[in-house]
Amino acid sequence: MSATRRSRRSSPPRLRAKAVRVAAALARLYGVPRWSGPRDPVACLVETIISQNTTDRARDAAYAALVARFPTWEALAAAPERDVRAAIRGAGLAEAKARTIRRLLAMLLARYGAYRFDALKAMTDDEAIAFLTTVSGIGVKTAAIALAFALGRDVFPVDTHVNRLCGRLGLVPESSAPDRTFRLMRAICPPGQAYAFHVGLITHGRRVCRAPRPKCEICALRSLCRFHRETPIATKLPPGTGGRKAGT
Ligand code: SF4
User: Fold this and answer.
1) Which of 27, 59, 66, 239, by CA, is between 20 and 30 Å from 192?
2) What are phi and psi of 214, to 5 degrees?
3) Which of 162, 222, 224, 233 to mutate to test the pocket of ligand 1 (most atoms within 8 A of CB)?
4) What pLDDT was estimated at residue 117?
5) Domains along the chain?
6) Which of 227, 229, 230, 236 has most ligand 1 atoms within 8 Å of its beta carbon, as the pocket-test mutant?
7) What is the DSSP track for 163-206?
8) Residue whose CA is at the smallest distance from ligand 1 atom 4
9) Ligand 1 binding residues, C-beta < 6 A
């Protein structure tokens, strides 16, 4: 494709219009997910920290084990780190995650005198993200998930799966890292639809646009997808059958 055509395709108005079409297509495919209502931001942050580099099932089991063993934030903060590690071991990276959870609780106690995050509600999205990411181990993705899922803010979290789809679809450069994709998507995400768009992409990534082998042949987003348009058929075949892994 010529450089002129490529740069026209990636102009902000075109990308905004494309994001609207992708969000609408996802809503047609999977329905519009409803936000389940406010949640304790501390619980959401702890759960998201545990979720890093693991499956939903392992995250849920580890979070349930943590809550069962330490029913209050006070009990969790007072516990020896090895006990916290042991409770969440099933989710992997237990040492790093236990440290991050304890740093978060220590910061809350030092700043607010309690394990509560009421102050978050008064902050703008940018202020909240800047504030949360001062805790070592909490990145933009984790902060954005807390804002979107616990507080219902119109923020579009970008994890590796959402990043993969945004890149393949051509909403952001294919090589964009998740934090850059987060910044780029803020400019083009349809207003008021960040939560539904995020959840729709996660669902599509699980069912169709999988990491090692996207099922382009059955995908309803093909007409909108850069990867499908620009990738020769052979490279979409499963590894071992003459194809290569998508994105490699
Ligand atoms: S056409 Fe292929 S790469 Fe594009 S969104 Fe669908 S499954 Fe993913």
Assistant:
1) 59
2) -65, 140
3) 222
4) 87
5) 3-33+157-236 (1.10.1670.10), 41-151 (1.10.340.30)
6) 227
7) HHHHHHHTSS-TT--HHHHHHHHHHHSPTT-HHHHHHHHHHHHH
8) 225
9) 168-169, 208-209, 214-216, 219, 221-222, 225, 227-228
Cβ contacts of residue 158 below 8 Å, gap of 6+? 140, 141, 144, 166, 178, 179, 181, 182, 185
Query: How many Å from the N-terminal Cα to the C-terminal Cα in the chain?
Result: 20
- For ligand 1, the distance from its centroid to the CA atom of residue 36, given in whole angstroms, is 28
Mean per-residue pLDDT, 215-226: 96
121 pLDDT more than 50? yes
Over the stretch 96-106, which tens digit does the pLDDT of each residue have?
Answer: 999 999 999 99
